[in-house]
Request: fold
Amino acid sequence: MASIFTKIVQREIPAEFLYEDEQVFAIKDINPVATHHFLVIPKKEIATANDVSKEDSETIANMYAVATRLAKDHGFADSGYRLVMNCNEHGGQEVFHIHLHVIGGNQLGSMV
Ligand code: 5GP
Reply:
């Protein structure tokens, strides 16, 4: 069954798109935890960080490039931000299609 993010990129479920290319897309998180909260998602359905393989290197690099570009374009790259990928239960992962959270625009609490 397609993940919720695949349904979003197939325009079966609405979302606010920020970016899209052949490999990745970015949307606004529906439940933002900071002033800016974006999700950068590969079109390939990779379930968790544990399932990333070497053949995904270009896609993963592209995800980081898109994330930093979005932070710059939205004016919070210099003030700072957090890039997070949750993995499995203890990591708090809810959607099993990897995604990079881009969180910024205000001071974030310490996480570790
Ligand atoms: P996770 O906990 O898996 O790392 O993060 C999943 C994220 O996806 C959450 O921050 C949640 O708010 C977001 N999310 C879940 N469903 C939707 C949706 O239908 N649309 C959007 N834009 N974000 C979603």
